[in-house]
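Title: Request for sanity check on DNA-binding MarR family transcriptional regulator prediction

Description:
We are preparing a figure and want to confirm that the structure record we downloaded matches what your pipeline produces today. Could someone re-run it with the sequence below and paste the raw structure tokens into this thread? We only need the token string, no images.
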Amino acid sequence: MEKQEDSIWAHCSSSSVRRASRQLGQLYDDAMGPSDLRGTQFSLITQIAYLKEPTQKELAKAMVMDLSALGHTLKPLIRDDLVELVPDEKDRRAKRVRLTPSGREKQAEMVANWQEAQRRFDAVLGAEKSAELRRTLAFIASEDFAKAYAAAGKKGD
């Protein structure tokens, strides 16, 4: 069997992260159980709850998504009455994303499944490495990283 450090994945950060993301996505989807929600949808409704009725723009920024991708992702949650879009009180052109009562219930119900998935992840990787990985990925997803990455490209010009 090929050693991981000798594989093609050891040479491309983007491909490695995407591959790991797909694997984790499948594992966490399985951990969500018979809820009819995927791990990505749980993450989205949890982010909505955390941000307390964000605008679509604020939510897209927090999720590192463009608005059209966010709209596509919200459609089934709106259809299933877990999320609703409401006009912003100060700017009627902006829409706020709000969990419905059934959305809040579903999010709370799924926390135990997520906690079990997280427990298993930490058990396999180790709590310290797991926490370090989350810090690293949070930095990679940040605007600071994107700016530094862009600046590094200009140095190569």
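Thanks, this matches our download. Residues 120 and 126 are 9 Å apart (CA to CA).
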